[in-house]
Hints:
- The protein is of the alpha+beta class.
- The protein has a single domain (about 5-125), classed as Nucleoside Triphosphate Pyrophosphohydrolase (Alpha-Beta Complex).
- The chain has helices at about 40-55, 110-115, 120-125, and strands at about 5-10, 15-20, 30, 35, 65-75, 75-85, 100-105.
- Strands 1, 2, 3, 4, 5, 6 and 7 form a seven-stranded mixed sheet that branches.
- A hairpin with a 2-residue loop joins strand 5 (about 65-75) and strand 6 (about 75-85).
Amino acid sequence: MRVVGCFIEFEGKFLLLQRSEFVDQPLTWALPAGKVESGETDLAAMMRELREETGYIARKEELEFLGVIEQDLAWGHLTFPTFRIRLVAPIEVRVNLREHCGFRWVNAHKCYAEKNVVTGLHELLVRVGYVKKK
C-alpha cells in the first residue's frame, strides 16, 4: 500500500490528528496522511489529503520531501512518501469529522513517548531524524 504523510510544523511542534473510532486503528494519533489514488502523484495526493483532513491548502513549493519510508507491518508492506511543511504563521485546523475526532500540536519527543499512536509512527520519527533511538 502507498500512503503519503506530512509533518506540519509550527514553533517546534507538529500536528497530530486523532483517528475516528470508526476507522482502522481507532482513536490513535497520526500525521495527516492518506492513500495515493490511481494516477495521482505523491505530491498531489499529499496536497489533497491536507485539504481533506485539515482544511489547509498547501502550495507545492512549501512541501519539503523527506524521503520514502518502507515498512513491513502486521497487515502487509507500506510505502510511505513523507513530506514536511514549516509554517511561518499558525493555521486554523478544520478536522474532517468522518476520519478524525481531534487534533493537537506536539513536539517530537512527546510524540515518541506517546503509546497511543498509529502503527509505524515511532519508527518514522527515528528514520526522518526527529528523534534518536535510545
